[in-house]
Design brief:
CATH superfamily of the largest domain: Phosphoenolpyruvate-binding domains
Strand order of the largest sheet: 1-2-3-4-5-6-7-8
Number of domains: 2
Oligomer: single chain
Radius of gyration: 22 Å
Largest sheet: 8 strands, parallel, barrel
Shape: globular
């Protein structure tokens, strides 16, 4: 049962900066999961380019296309009544030029029904963010560990542990956060940084921070739903808490199904139809 049917919007998320009511966010890539998560009361559903690894089986998010994000976003928005749906701009859909970013973001909103976009980067992308905000497209920022920078980082590695001024350093991440704030983001994801750095960013900026692998001081938290539900047994990073073990539940359910099919215990009479004149009815009424 939903806690509220009132729509969550970009302004309502922005207004929760520093609130005791922390922001909850999860990823979604399909109608069924989106409907379940929305009904449970999550604030934000992100159609992340993480679909490249979670859904498509790639090693990185880089192969994901804009058309694929639009497709999955359409599926998600059909299942949502309350949550704010945000979609990632995938690799090379916004880095080439501001004009390309505007075109990509407009397609996402127009063709999928999402209410905001997320893009990775700080200072270097702030002019693009500013332009999107100027044409009334809500933007969520993303700093720290940015998966589209996989090759620059040499893998998905914790950022912000040095103070040498280069990309991924503590001082650069602080500059990135300020640049995004000034560009007009309504919130920003902080990923894969030391907890104390995330706390510093959170206290420094006037927009909500949403952490993933960034400690408890952020204004909200986001996890990949499949990780949180324990659906991928061989992936267990330190920052993920498993609230269920669905991989085991699914394994047991499928094995039971196979056993019952093999032994002819399924389908039984209660799952079968018989012809009674022009109508098809269940062979036996299910109690």
């Amino acid at each position: 049962m939903k806690s509220s049917t009132k729509r969550v919007t970009a302004p309502s998320i922005y207004s929760r900066k520093g609130s005791k009511q922390k922001i909850s966010a999860l990823t979604a890539y399909d109608y069924t999961m989106a409907k379940l998560l929305d009904a449970a009361g999550v604030d934000i559903l992100l159609v992340g380019d993480s679909l490249g690894t979670v859904i498509q089986g790639h090693d990185t998010t880089l192969p994901v296309t804009l058309d694929e994000v639009i497709y999955h976003s359409r599926c998600v928005t059909r299942g949502v009544e309350r949550a704010l749906v945000v979609a990632d701009l995938p690799f090379m859909s916004y880095q080439i030029s501001i004009e390309k970013a505007v075109e990509s973001a407009c397609r996402l909103l127009k063709e999928s029904g999402v209410s905001a976009v997320k893009l990775e980067g700080g200072e270097f992308i702030s002019k693009t963010v500013k332009r999107l905000v100027e044409i009334d497209i809500p933007v969520m920022g993303h700093i720290g560990l940015t998966p589209q920078s996989y090759h620059r980082m040499g893998g998905n590695k914790i950022q912000g542990s040095t103070n040498d001024g280069v990309a991924g350093s503590r001082d650069q991440i602080l500059r990135d956060a300020i640049a995004l704030e000034h560009a007009g983001v309504f919130a920003m994801v902080i990923e894969g940084v030391p907890a104390e750095l995330a706390a510093d960013v959170t206290s420094m900026v006037s927009v909500p921070t949403i952490g993933i692998g960034a400690g408890p001081s952020c204004d909200g938290q986001i996890l990949v739903t499949q990780d949180m539900l324990g659906m991928i047994p061989d992936f267990a990073p330190k920052f993920v808490k498993r609230y269920a073990n669905l991989s085991q539940t699914i394994d047991q359910a499928v094995k039971s199904y196979i056993d019952e099919v093999s032994s002819s215990n399924f389908p039984g009479d209660e799952h079968s139809f018989v012809s009674k004149g022009p109508d098809l009815k269940l062979a036996k009424k299910v109690s």
